[in-house]
Recover the amino acids of this structure.
């Protein structure tokens, strides 16, 4: 029995990791600049632009307050527009990314706001241009917090990816629902749950390890 | 080297606080190679004054001439270039925790786009100057307060500035370490002929380090002159009381450090 289960389990795990990795990468590429700007566009800050906060703050909050499963269904037209279909593993990346962007933006914003403002001042006194303050001071100093946050995002996305699995996206969630629930195969259900636990543990542990490596504040 | 003429600074009103005038017409001349102390009680406007020199604060009115240029007129593009000619040392060191000693000292050069070789040529001789050869690859978390401040000083020197601005650089240090840091600064002034502006609330620092001193109170300079003269013959009440403080120096240091922490907490 295991020999028949192993290949489909492996394939489902691969699909889950693919969806999560893609959404994490795409979400970071957009969430990072958004988070940096949210953290630095306030009054008297590096890139003062109050309009930016007024527009994007509420958008970020609104996106975050919609439950993921509803978000995924609500943006189906957009998903279809981007990928050409709303079903399948690649299509699932769209709602996952849309959910990840504001999540990551807030995490980056928070990590940057933790950086001592004295360091910004010191950098400016040294002749740093605003962009250099971000690249040379804020991001390196916030790195441990950012890694922690991205780890949290990855774990959350693994959960979300199981939800989109329920609407036909492939991956471990899909497998669990189709075999474990609809065809009543408790062995498959158990295997899926155990695999999810192992994957989440592995992601969390490696994230913690990287954050510790990056953190030079307590040596 | 530096000439402040009728410099005023008013912080605009914010939620929960009225506007506040921290500097009310400051005139101060600082010659090249000189060490000038600025002393005063907490809230006198000392930090505001020194921050107006490198334009971390923009004066509301008046002019700040550094090396012949009115720096208040500089554009946002030129301001970083100007600031690279000044080094600044801070009370709380403000070192990057993510960088080693060497990389912290290298930062100003990195910002200016220096090559690896240029950086090494500038940083390597600074390490022995501040006595940190052995700590080269350590992180700030592994250093004592005095060592951190040595890194702060080396970092301020790495871009070969003409002026060193020091804001309460010994206030977070114990008396012995304070003495060492003051000796280091004195030594640097002699060797490199640097102009220095030294902010402090302790007369002992002025006595140990400065050629000339300006006494501030309520946003104005109330008394100014050669250190020996001011010590021998203080005229203004503020000066007299600051001199009297020397006997309770330790307590005074603690109290004002506390009040500063509280006020910065409110601002942030
Ligand atoms: N960013 C700011 N916004 C508003 N008010 C400020 C700001 N910075 C300083 N002030 C006010 O200006 C006055 C002078 O402050 P400053 O920091 O120059 O004093 P100081 O002499 O350096 O005091 P200390 O010895 O405590 O450092 C204080 O009353 C302070 O509250
Ligand atoms: Mg001050």
């Amino acid at each position: 029995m295991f020999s028949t289960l192993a290949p489909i389990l492996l394939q489902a795990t691969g699909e889950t990791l693919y969806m999560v990795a893609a959404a994490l990468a795409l979400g970071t590429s957009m969430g990072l600049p958004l988070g940096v700007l949210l953290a630095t566009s306030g009054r008297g800050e590096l890139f003062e632009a109050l309009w930016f906060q007024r527009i994007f703050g509420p958008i970020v909050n609104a996106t975050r307050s919609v439950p993921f499963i509803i978000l995924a269904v609500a943006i189906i037209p957009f998903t279809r527009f981007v990928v050409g279909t709303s079903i399948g593993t690649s299509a699932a990346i769209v709602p996952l990314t849309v959910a990840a962007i504001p999540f990551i933006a807030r995490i980056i914003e928070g990590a940057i706001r933790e950086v001592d403002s004295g360091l910004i001042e010191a950098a400016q006194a040294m002749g740093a241009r605003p962009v250099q303050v971000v690249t040379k001071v804020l991001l390196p100093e916030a790195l441990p917090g950012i890694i922690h946050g991205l780890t949290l995002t990855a774990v959350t996305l693994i959960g979300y990816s199981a939800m989109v699995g329920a609407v036909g996206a492939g991956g471990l969630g899909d497998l669990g629902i189709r075999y474990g629930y609809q065809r009543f195969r408790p062995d498959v259900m158990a295997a899926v749950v155990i695999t999810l636990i192992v994957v989440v543990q592995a992601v969390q542990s490696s994230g913690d390890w990287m954050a510790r490596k990056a953190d030079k504040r307590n040596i | 080297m530096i000439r402040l003429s009728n410099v005023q600074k008013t912080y605009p009103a914010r939620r929960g606080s009225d506007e506040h005038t921290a500097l009310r017409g400051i005139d101060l001349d600082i010659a090249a190679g000189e060490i000038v102390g600025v002393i005063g009680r907490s809230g006198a406007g000392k930090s505001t004054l020194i921050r107006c020199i490198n334009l971390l604060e923009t004066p509301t009115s008046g002019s700040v001439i550094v090396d012949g240029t009115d720096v208040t007129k500089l554009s946002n593009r030129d301001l970083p270039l100007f600031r690279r000619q000044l080094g600044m040392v801070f009370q709380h060191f403000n070192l990057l925790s993510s960088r080693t000693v060497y990389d912290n000292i290298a930062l100003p050069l990195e910002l200016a786009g220096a090559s690896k070789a240029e950086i090494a040529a500038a940083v390597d001789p600074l390490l022995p100057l501040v006595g940190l050869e052995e700590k080269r690859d350590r992180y700030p978390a592994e250093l004592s307060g005095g060592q951190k401040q040595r890194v702060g000083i080396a970092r301020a020197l790495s871009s070969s500035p003409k002026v060193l601005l020091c804001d309460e650089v010994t206030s977070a240090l114990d008396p012995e370490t304070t003495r060492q840091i003051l000796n280091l600064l004195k030594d640097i002034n002699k060797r490199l002929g640097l102009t220095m502006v030294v902010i402090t609330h302790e007369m002992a620092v002025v006595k140990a380090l400065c050629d000339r001193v300006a006494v501030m109170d309520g946003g104005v300079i109330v008394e100014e002159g050669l250190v020996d003269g001011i010590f021998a013959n203080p005229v203004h009440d503020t000066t007299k009381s600051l001199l009297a403080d020397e006997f309770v120096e330790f307590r005074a240091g603690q109290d004002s450090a506390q009040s500063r922490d509280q006020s910065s907490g409110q601002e942030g």
